[in-house]
Amino acid sequence: MRTDDLIKALDADARSTAMPLGSAWWIGAGAATLIAAAVFWLAIGPRTDIATAMYTTRFVAKFVFTMALAVSAFALSRALSTPGAATSRAAAWMVAAPLLVGVAVGLELLSVPAADWGRRLVGSNMVICLSFIPLIGIGPLAVFLAVLRYGAPTRPVLAGAVAGLLAGGLAATFYAAHCFDDSPLFVATWYTIAIAILAALGALGGRLFVRW
Asked: For this UniProt entry, which residues form the secretion signal (predicted)?
């Protein structure tokens, strides 16, 4: 057998046994969720009145926002990890979470006296929010960057930033179960800043570790 034929045969064998990228994303998502859950339960856990809070609209709305971000970012991250894959549809869905939050904030401003806006925006857990969303999300971000590296993103910085949004959405979903501040004004401000920290770290990770 000639050397070229041997190389082609080895390459074909490697491709046939390699895990499909789609499967790697689902396994990565599962691992990231387990990591986030472990950090959440070990570090802070759910709020003491969660059994009552889960019946309130504002509390449930937080999970709608964060899960919308996580799902849309997951779809876009998968698309960005594959060279030549269409990303426009997945990118369009990224407006879902900001749009939902914007609508909720608008309704909040209409229903709450202006004198209460500042108090609801600042809340009581600002520092905890800014600390624990990145803490819960850093492990999942590392997992998602590893999956991106397993793929072949042509825009690694953008892909890393979206992976950070994915990690942030996942982390914020867990953190929302602990947070006593249910106001959309609080969520729109402090959750966004905390998630943006992970997006910035993801962009840096994409630049340093995902390039190929």
From this structure: none
Report residue 87 as tokens.
Answer: 């990303």
Question: How many angstroms separate the CA atoms of 212 and 209, rounded?
Answer: 9
Q: Which residues of the chain register pLDDT less than 50? A: 1, 6-8, 10-11, 14
Amino acid, single-letter form, for residue 181: D
Q: What is the pTM of this model?
A: 0.89
Non-local CB neighbours of 194 within 8 Å, separated by 6+ positions: 129, 130, 133, 134, 168, 171, 172
Tell me the pLDDT tens digit for each residue of 32-74. 999 999 999 999 999 999 999 999 999 999 999 999 999 999 9
Q: Identity (one letter) of the amino acid at 174?
A: F
Query: Could you give the C-alpha distances from 154 to 75, 92, 142, 212, in angstroms and in order?
Result: 16, 19, 19, 8
Tell which phi-psi region holds residue 84, choosing left (phi > 0), alpha (psi between -120 and 50) or beta: left
